[in-house]
Amino acid sequence: MAKPDYTSLKFPPPESGDRPYVIVNMVSSIDGKVTIEGTEEGIGSPVDQRLMRELRVHADVVLDGASTLRKSGASPRLGAAILERIRIDQGKATRLPAIATMTNSGDLPLDRIFFTSPEFRAVVYTGADVPAPRMEVLRATGRMIVPLPSEGNVEAMLAHMRRELDCSLLLVEGGPTINRLMFDADVVDEMFLTIG
Predict the structure, then answer these.
(1) Which of 89, 109, 116, 160 lies deepest, with the highest CB count within 10 Å?
(2) At 85, phi and psi to the nearest 5?
(3) For the segment 148-190, what is each residue's pLDDT rounded down to a tens digit?
(4) How many degrees, rounded to 5, is the angle at CA 157 between CA 80 and CA 123?
(5) pLDDT per residue over 13-54, tens digit each?
(6) Sheet holding 144-147, edge to edge
């Protein structure tokens, strides 16, 4: 049996200039659970992890929810030099995609690779209710901080990604809260679902 390979997948360009093409990649247990003991670790296999990294080859931006960043960290790393080469060969300007997160509280662990690595660009999209002192702390990290309106925040985030980050393809990696926001906003163009 041939092993699956996502590096040669082709994705269409965005249908509008207002937002990127949005794909969601997620894993679920057969009974519908997306986390075990508060983390998604343990549901997917090493093959699932490889396929996730292969999807990142195509992405301009990877989006992880704030809970995922808190529990597991957040990094757009591809895990293999060959994947970085494939990405560049496919016309991407950088060897790694940018990474983004959304937070309503601003309460993020600043010691995570998301904030500390110079390897990739990272963007924090904040809700309208993040306290000013917390916004100052986030801005002090040197990462791009983008406040969103309280209404239409998903659409505003996607418009910013398209316009300011030149994002044609957004890969949403979860967790469940951010996935639901994307589905509720009716912006998901394609989904990759692994049943583990």
Answers:
(1) 160
(2) -65, -45
(3) 998 889 999 999 999 999 999 999 998 899 999 999 999 999 9
(4) 45
(5) 998 889 999 999 987 766 655 555 555 555 667 777 888 899
(6) 144-147, 122-126, 98-103, 61-65, 169-174, 21-28, 190-195
pLDDT tens-digit map of 121-133? 999 999 999 999 9
Does the pTM surpass 0.85? The reply is: yes
Q: Is 30 exposed, middle or buried (0-12, 13-18, 19+ CB in 10 A)?
A: exposed
Tokens 């931006």 found at: 61
Q: In 3D, which of 150, 164, 77, 153 has the Cα closest to residue 112?
A: 77
Residue 106 and residue 175: Cα distance in Å, rounded? 17
Q: Is the peptide bond before 175 cis (omega within 30 degrees of 0)?
A: yes
Helix, strand, coil percentages in the chain from 3-state DSSP, rounded to 5: 30, 20, 50
